[in-house]
Amino acid sequence: MSKIALEEFDGARILQTTQNDARRIYQRVKAAQENPTRASVRWPFELIQNAHDAGPSEGNNRVEINFTLSEDRLIVSHTGKPFVAQELAALLSGGSSKEFDDEDTTGRFGTGFLVTHAVSTHVAIDGLLGTQQGYEEFSIELTRDGDEDSIIANIEQANESLENAEPILDQWNINSPTASFTYYDPNLEVVRRGLDRLEQTLPYLYATCDKLGRVMIIRPGDEKCFQPERTEDSEVEEFLINKTLVNIDGTHHSGQVTAVRAGQKSK
Fold first, then answer.
1. CA-CA distances (angstroms) from residue 256 to 125, 141, 193, 230, 253?
2. What residues have CB less than 8 Å from 18, skipping those under 6 apart?
3. How far apart are CA 193 and CA 5, in angstroms?
4. CA distances from 225 to 56, 138, 217, 231, 252 (A)
5. Percent of the chain, pLDDT > 70?
6. pLDDT tens digits, 98-146
């Protein structure tokens, strides 16, 4: 194959890959919007899973997550490990960063993330990208409310935005978010259902999500803070019992819940 032919082939291959990505994104976003009841109870857990899969950022023992709702936006931020290049690629392509045989994660920012577009198809993402030379701050916008051509255009715009990522020269504050997702003009009914379900089930997630730390859910006129306080291990016959005490401090309600996990002892 001549050099010219090879260049034409490479261009066609890249275009075909981008078109496939756009088609997948379009179909998954459409499916989420056409089934808002199902999507509304999934989206917060997809975001928690992404943050938890990453694990805590350097200097932290757990991942802290904030859900903040106002009239015109929902902001979800966390202190998980910074992005790596493969995860950013998955985010833009609607694919998955999961290793095929990885038992510890389910894939960050891939097809599961697309269900969060039931909240809004316009999302701004600010975060840290880890490189071999340190960390860089980036900001991109995803707009996925159009057809496949418009999604392709947005993928290209996001790629261009990544070229403007700036290295961090000063030491990063370990208490600052490493990623922030801003959903503009959210579907408030989808958000409400999702946050309601999250508040009901969140205490029990601590039984299996050992890297999950404080979670704040902030709505107009209402705030709730979920904080795991201590973990107690015990043995009952052939089982290991793990108990995590979760404190709930809210504007209208406070209390404690014990999350329990049981598993067989290793032989």
1. 34, 39, 23, 12, 10
2. 152, 155, 156
3. 54
4. 19, 29, 6, 18, 12
5. 90
6. 433 333 334 455 568 899 999 999 999 999 998 888 889 999 999 999 8
Neighbours of 181 (CB within 10 A): 22
Residue 5 clears pLDDT 80, i.e. is over it? no
User: pLDDT band at residue 242, thresholds of 50, 70 and 90?
Assistant: confident
Residues 6+ apart with CB under 8 A from 118: 32, 33, 36, 39, 40, 43, 187, 190
Q: Contact 117/123 with Cβ under 8 angstroms?
A: yes
R_g (Cα) of the chain, nearest Å: 20
Q: In 10 A of CB 147, how many CB atoms? A: 9
In angstroms, the Cα distances linking 153 to 12, 156, 208 are 16, 5, 40
Q: What is d(CA 104, CA 98) in angstroms, rounded to the nearest whole number?
A: 9
Q: What is the pLDDT of residue 97?
A: 40
Q: What are the φ/ψ torsions at residue 232 (nearest 5 degrees)?
A: -125, 130
For residue 51, the model assigns a pLDDT of 92
